[in-house]
Amino acid sequence: MLRALLLAAIALAVAAPSANAALADRYVPWHGAEDGVKVRSASVGFDAKAARIYRRLAGREVTVECFGEEPLPGGGTRHYGGVGSMDAPRKRHSLYLLGGDVCSYATKQRRGEDDCIRGDDSPYPTGCVRLIVARTERGRVYLDRFSRAFEIAHVANAEDPAQLGPDVTVLPSADAAPPAGKVGYFVQGTTKVVAALLEDGTRWFVRTDGDVTTTNVPDFVALWSQEIRTLT
């Protein structure tokens, strides 16, 4: 799911950039305690502040998909996950969590709704993810990376990044970093750079020089047709 969700979000950004979008917040429904979503060991609760978030799930059949990763004693990483379903009560109520670092909640896509991330294992071919939560610090790091990758793809594909709203800013040089919480872009001749900062201060970027694109954003290669050099 980790790779699938990331590619689904980037593909959505490539397919449907729109003016004055709220960038990741518009498409990536990641919520936590600051939004009234309380993540516990085996359930997620919703206080009054999260009433609007819960309404996206209330009274619907919900697919819960969780995934995680852990280091192996001999080296390497084990990836694991689980999928389940439930009928969410109409009145605000806690929902269960499976094990892992990140969990998503998806319901059937509504008519006219074409700007959502699809649930990878939803029983509906066009299921939409309504809520994503981080169960662990690893999950929070993943969702931070997930959101920044989405934003970079969104801005890199825009014909005019200046029309994407106040969360997008002009960079003074190709190697500059944007302020935290912003996505920066630089255009000069055939060079275009888009960059964002992760929570730990790491600068992620995509740089296009003519027909060659260089990036340090994982999984970005799958979405670009030009020659790409991925930096690790």
Q: What does this 3D model show about the protein?
A:
The protein is of the alpha+beta class. The chain folds into 2 domains: 2-140, no CATH class; 159-230, no CATH class. It contains 4 helices and 13 strands. A 6-stranded mixed β-sheet has the order 8-9-10-11-12-13, covered by helices on one side. Strands 4-3-6-7 form a 4-stranded antiparallel β-sheet, covered by helices on one side. Strand 1 (37-39) and strand 2 (43-46) form a beta hairpin. The longest helix has 21 residues, at 137-157. The chain is globular, with a radius of gyration of 18 Å.
What's this, in brief?
The chain has helices at residues 2-15, 24-27, 51-55, 137-157, and strands at 37-39, 43-46, 61-71, 77-87, 95-96, 102-107, 128-134, 168-170, 183-188, 191-197, 203-209, 212-215, 227-230. The protein is of the alpha+beta class and 232 residues long.
Using DSSP, what is the number of strands?
13
Chain-averaged pLDDT: 82
Q: Report the order of strands and helices.
A: HHEEHEEEEEHEEEEEE
Nearest-angstrom radius of gyration?
A: 18 Å
Number of individual domains: 2
Uncertain stretches of 5 or more adjacent residues: 14-21, 222-232
| Beta-strand proportion | 25-35%
**What is the helix fraction of residues, given as a range?**
10-25%
**How many helices in DSSP terms?**
4
What layout of secondary structure does this protein have?
Layout: H1 2-15, H2 24-27, E1 37-39, E2 43-46, H3 51-55, E3 61-71, E4 77-87, E5 95-96, E6 102-107, E7 128-134, H4 137-157, E8 168-170, E9 183-188, E10 191-197, E11 203-209, E12 212-215, E13 227-230
Parallel strand pairs: 8-9, 12-13
Antiparallel strand pairs: 1-2, 2-5, 3-4, 3-6, 6-7, 9-10, 10-11, 11-12
Helix pairs in contact: 1-4
